[in-house]
Design a protein that fits this description.
The complex is a heterodimer of chains A (223) and B (324).
Chain A lengths: L1 E4 L5 H14 L3 E4 L12 E8 L12 E7 L13 E6 L15 E4 L15 E4 L15 E4 L15 E4 L10 E4 L3 H11 L11 E5 L14
Parallel strand pairs in A: 1-2, 2-3, 3-4, 4-5, 5-6, 6-7, 7-8, 8-9
Antiparallel strand pairs in A: 9-11, 10-11
Chain B lengths: L1 E8 L6 H11 L7 E7 L10 E7 L8 H14 L3 E8 L2 E7 L4 H10 L3 E6 L2 E7 L2 H8 L8 E7 L14 E2 L7 E8 L2 H10 L9 H14 L4 H11 L2 E8 L3 E6 L8 E4 L3 E5 L2 H7 L8 E2 L5 E6 L4 E5 L9
Antiparallel strand pairs in B: 1-8, 1-14, 2-7, 2-8, 3-5, 3-6, 4-5, 9-10, 10-11, 11-12, 12-16, 13-14, 13-15, 16-17
Helix pairs in contact in B: 1-8, 5-6, 6-7
The chains are: A alpha/beta (223), B alpha+beta (324).
């Protein structure tokens, strides 16, 4: 286990050490993060990382294969463009979490700010608490699972993918429709939530794209 | 991008100047063009008229020397039945204490005609602002020693007007007492609203959109709205993307527009509330995170904290304005 004290290192030094550790396969923990930005960015390869405290903006972004646990909260743009791996936030995440995420899993055990999963293209976001305004704004693929409530304009201009909400939905966005929650959905969610120790609520509402504004496929050719 | 911050002590005085120095230093990566603070400190009443503090710019290009400025002040105040108590220069800002019972707006406009650049006027408010980061600002102005009930601070990355000391934040509501704002964002209906306020007789000191927020708030406060009401109304009147703080002698309030692309977090402690653009700025002031929770308000919301400890917050509903 490598221990990095963020009070004594620059962010560049920390991320350089993390990339080296990703090559050797050694586990890393970061102490005294004090909400600093850009921790665990650009990690390509298997890395087991724990941040002891809260991190700032862009935590764990531009990574592929990172396995990150943050003991506290994270700021805006966590897991930005995540390609693969698993990021677990024990407390809250700020706004715009996982924009453009392509794969992997982001688990936020507390609440999330505005626009989680904006233009996400794959992977899954799990929110233990509430998700903020415009959850899944323009999302293209993947899944967002909200165990608490969701704020205004859920799925605004959603193109593809699925949003599951267990609690109250404040309002729906443009071009999002409610679909039937099936036994397959339930089974898939059971498997998805189980490893994180999150109790699966009894039922969910499921939202998908109405495909009126944006959709993929050739013009004039049937789906 | 800009960084904003604020601190309000509940029912007591605190080291507001030093808190703001740390908060604004913690947010300097959001803008290093200029920085500034507005500190509110309750003054003791002297009994023989109202004591005002005027912070004015001196000794730089386009402004007069401190001696010339003080001469003008003395001349104008004597004619208006007031007087200068004392004056103190730090950096390029002169703080002048005066006794004056007349119209603050008239005095401000008169000073402008005499080429005196006012930065803040009030019974409690003092603004210090200049180019550079908050630590450099403190070296020049020594504001970190100021105690008070509350204050707001700002780190600027210029987008809507050029970089200059008078376009640094906080903006004071030109012509009013004791209203100051800091703003992160852009107003898209600035000129439309500015022309409306000019028709109503108000003048503007700069071409910066944020100054409008200060005059907007002060105008409606004078009309009798409370700060919370002004902030809720501003969400409909101000177009653009913004998060801003407004400070009055008793309150700090915030408004976040309906898309909320500009951040704000706050932490409510037993003795004070601290607001900042980012958590990293809170950590500069409160390095240990145990024992308190950081809150991020949703979009389309206004909130207010009072120095007596009261708080109100209201989230508006999207249906009311028809987002589609």
């Amino acid at each position: 286990m490598i221990t990095l004290d963020a009070d004594k290192l620059t962010v560049t030094e920390i991320n350089r050490s993390l990339r080296q550790a990703a090559e050797t396969g050694e586990k890393v923990e970061i102490l005294n993060p004090r909400s600093r930005h850009h921790l665990g960015v650009g990690i390509l390869g298997q890395l087991d990382l724990t941040i002891r405290g809260s991190a700032g903006y862009f935590c764990g972004c531009l990574s592929e294969g990172l396995r990150l646990r943050v003991d506290g909260s994270v700021g805006w743009f966590a897991a930005d463009n995540l390609m693969a791996g698993e990021i677990i936030i024990e407390r809250n995440a700020g706004s715009c979490a996982a924009p453009g995420m392509c794969g992997g899993t982001l688990v936020v055990k507390g609440h999330m700010g505005s626009r989680p999963g904006q233009v996400m293209k794959g992977g899954a976001i799990i929110v233990g608490g509430n998700a903020g305004f415009m959850t899944g704004f323009m999302m293209i693929n993947g899944a967002i699972v909200v165990l608490g409530d969701a704020g205004d304009l859920v799925g605004h201009y959603i193109v593809g993918g699925t949003i599951y909400v267990a609690g109250k939905v404040e309002s729906l966005g443009v071009d999002v429709v409610e679909a039937a929650y099936t036994a397959e959905d339930d089974q898939w969610l059971t498997g998805l939530l189980e490893p994180y120790g999150l109790a699966k609520p009894g039922s969910f509402r499921k939202f998908v794209s109405g495909q009126r504004h944006h959709h993929y496929g050739r013009e004039g050719v049937g789906a | 991008m800009c960084g904003i911050g604020g601190v309000l002590y509940k029912g007591k005085n605190g080291p507001v100047g030093d808190d703001l120095r740390q908060l604004v230093y913690g947010i300097r990566h959001r803008g290093e063009d200029s920085s500034g603070v507005a500190v509110f400190s309750a003054q003791e009443h002297r009994g023989d008229g109202e004591e005002l503090i005027l912070n004015v710019r001196v000794d730089i290009d386009g402004c007069q020397s401190s001696t010339e400025t003080l001469d003008i002040m003395r001349k104008l105040l004597t004619a208006a039945g007031g007087r200068v108590i004392d004056a103190q220069v730090s950096g390029t800002i002169m703080s002048i204490r005066v006794l004056y019972g007349g119209s603050v707006q008239e005095l401000c406009y008169l000073l402008d005609q005499n080429n005196v650049q006012t930065i803040s006027v009030g019974t409690q408010l003092r603004i210090y602002k200049d180019l550079g980061t908050s630590d450099r600002l403190d070296e020049a102005y020594h504001y970190s020693g100021l105690a008070g009930t509350h204050g707001i601070g700002h780190a600027r990355l210029a987008t809507e007007s050029v970089v200059s000391p008078d376009r640094a934040h906080p903006f004071w509501a030109y012509g009013f007492k004791d209203v100051a704002i800091v703003h992160n964002g852009q107003l898209t209906n600035y000129w439309k609203l500015r022309r409306r306020f000019e028709r109503w007789g108000y003048r503007f000191r700069t071409d910066n959109d944020s100054e409008l927020i200060a005059i907007y708030a002060a105008h409606y406060l004078k009309q009798g709205l409370d700060l919370q009401g002004v902030l809720e109304q501003s969400l409909a009147d101000l177009d653009g993307t913004y998060t801003f703080l407004v400070a009055t002698p008793t309150e700090i309030g915030f408004a976040k527009d309906k898309l909320a692309a500009k951040p704000l977090v706050y932490v409510e402690l037993e003795d004070r509330v601290v607001l900042a653009s980012e958590e990293i700025s809170l950590r500069a002031l409160l390095p240990d995170e145990a024992g308190y929770a950081v809150e991020e308000p949703p979009p389309y919301i206004a909130g207010t904290w009072n120095v007596s400890g009261g708080r109100s917050m209201k989230k508006l509903t999207y249906q009311a304005v028809g987002l589609e």
